[in-house]
Amino acid sequence: MAHPLSRRRLLTLGTATFGALTLGPHAQAAAPTSVPLPNGWQPEGITIGAAPYAYLGSLADGSIYRADLRTGTGKVISTGPGTPAVGLKLDARGRLFVAARGFGARVVDARSGETLASYPLATATPSFANDVVLTPRAAWFTESYQPVLYGLPLGRNGELPATEDVVRLPLSGDWTQSTDGAINANGIARTPDGSALLVVQAGVGLLHRVDPRTGVTTTVDLGDAAPLGNGDGLLVRGRTLYAVQNRQNAVDVFRLAPDGRSGVFQRRITDPAFDVPTTVAAYGGRLYLPNARFTTAPTPGTTYSVTAVDA
Length: 311
Fold this sequence. Notes:
Blueprint: E1 11-13, E2 16-18, H1 25-30, E3 34-37, E4 43-48, E5 53-58, E6 64-68, E7 74-78, E8 88-90, E9 95-99, E10 105-109, E11 115-119, E12 129-134, E13 138-143, E14 148-153, E15 167-170, E16 172-173, E17 185-190, E18 197-201, E19 206-210, E20 216-219, E21 231-237, E22 240-245, E23 250-256, E24 263-269, E25 281-283, E26 286-290, E27 304-310
Parallel strand pairs: 16-20
Antiparallel strand pairs: 1-2, 3-27, 4-5, 5-6, 6-7, 8-9, 9-10, 10-11, 12-13, 13-14, 14-15, 17-18, 18-19, 19-20, 21-22, 22-23, 23-24, 25-26, 26-27
């Protein structure tokens, strides 16, 4: 059954058209540049599909919030199980694939909020399933404390795998795991041509190209660009890579080779409203970044928001 978020319902107001289509330039200008989240939410991951809705998980309890990018309003669509929701991605079937730190991963129906499946991922401790990317054949999760990626292979029609079918792909080649307690694998994306995965190693600031068949990695040549220190969420649109650096309150933009083996620095995006942004998703001509506020002690009353900037 088609997910209602994918239906091409249109509402025309003046010259602006909304729905599953990209917002027109006048509507984009009118959309809010700051989207409030519930107090105490503790956001980390964000994902946006074809419609103007952003989905954000809570580190506090794993709940999922849906925000309307046109109005800035939203609601909790799924009450969490009490475990964190870190990175997440929405597929075309309306399913949210959610990384859950040491608790593995779960898949949530974005319409009903029902948990469709849960997967233990790690076979060693400590474990930190951090971020996720979707490919036509699998959902790939990064592991920040072990040199491995986790894969959920998908069936021909997108069927979810059985628990015993989880793939654990050791990283080799250029990958050297840091053992000083720093975050290792963090953000993940696909190369522009879809042939490999890109993974940022946050603690050392390196970007790696990973062969998903073998786990062999090669360091991406970013020329004279500064290291991606505190590298977090990654987003690839066409041949453009957006790499979030959370503690720097910045997004570095690169032009990638189609196979992702090299890239050229283009510019840095910053904004006064950034407060430790962690991940990034796009809609229309804008980037949306949740402010995790890691330098602010979380309380039930702590305010959180998503900041929108021009792509």
